[in-house]
Amino acid sequence: MRVYRSYAGTIVASLLLTLSGGCALVDMKLPLSYEPASQAVRGQGPVEIARPPDPDFRKNSEGLPIIGNVRNGYGVHTADVVARDSIPDWFASACAAQFSKVGYQAKVVQQLSPGCQRGIELEIQHVTTDMDPGMLTVGGVSQVEFVITFTKGGERVEQLRFEGTGDDRGMLGGGGELENGLRKAMQVCLTQATQYAAAAWKE
Questions:
Q1: Distance between CA atoms of residues 71 and 19, nearest Å
Q2: N or C: less crowded end of the chain, CB within 10 Å?
Q3: Is there a contact between 88 and 54 (Cβ–Cβ < 8 Å)?
Q4: Cα–Cα distance measured from residue 148 to residue 12, given in angstroms and rounded to the nearest whole number
């Protein structure tokens, strides 16, 4: 009986390794989503968020930006993770969602209006989400890095760099772990950004 259980466990582990990307040869098109985190920080008033320019990321054969690696159960790269959605739109909309969550009337614009009361300019520096296969689970290890320039009355008042890491794990590695990891990494950055905003705008 003990031998049977050990053998069965080996079969299950091998099956999970296969399901966790062992046969993945096609790029994984990952959606970009955001869920604003709850915070005690409170703000008020209008905020304009300028849509950032497209980052200079390497592209796949379809012209989609590569943001990570798909790996099989042995950790070998088998395909790329590419962003299905616009990265600049994701940054801008996530920022608007988080600042709205804490009380600001945030809106995304193509560029800040002259003399806008409160403004945010974003510079995307780094976005990655890599598949981290394990024996029983598959992880998504993600990193986000960007610079925020805060403006007030049309003048730049503060520039800060934010870095966030997110990690999520699941059983089958269908992409949800990578999406969740990115969302967590963005939450880390934007919750910090809202904390600095009041000081930057001297509210």
A1: 11
A2: N
A3: yes
A4: 47
Residue 9 has φ and ψ, to the nearest 5°, of -60, -35
Closest CA to 171 of 8, 7, 5, 15: 15
Residue with tokens 């796949």: 60
Handedness of CA 155, 87, 133, 168 (dihedral sign): positive
- Structurally, at CATH architecture level, domain 2-201 sits in 3-Layer(aba) Sandwich (3.40)
This prediction's pTM: 0.83
pLDDT in tens, 98-151: 999 999 999 999 999 999 999 999 999 999 998 877 666 677 789 999 999 999
Q: In a 3-state reduction of DSSP, which class is residue 72? A: coil
Q: Give the list of residues 6+ apart from residue 43 with CB closer than 8 angstroms, or none.
A: 99, 102, 103, 104, 194, 197, 198, 203
Sign of the dihedral defined by the CA atoms of residues 58, 62, 66, 69, in that order: negative
- Residue by residue, DSSP assigns 98-118 as HHHHTT-EEEEESSPPTT-SE
Contact 60, 66 (CB under 8 A): yes
C-alpha to C-alpha distance for 35 and 97, rounded to whole angstroms: 8
**Coil, strand, or helix at residue 22?**
helix
Closest CA to 53 of 119, 123, 114, 154: 123
Q: 180: helix, coil or strand? A: helix
User: CA triplet 196, 200, 203: central angle to 5 degrees?
Assistant: 95
The residue type found at 3 is V
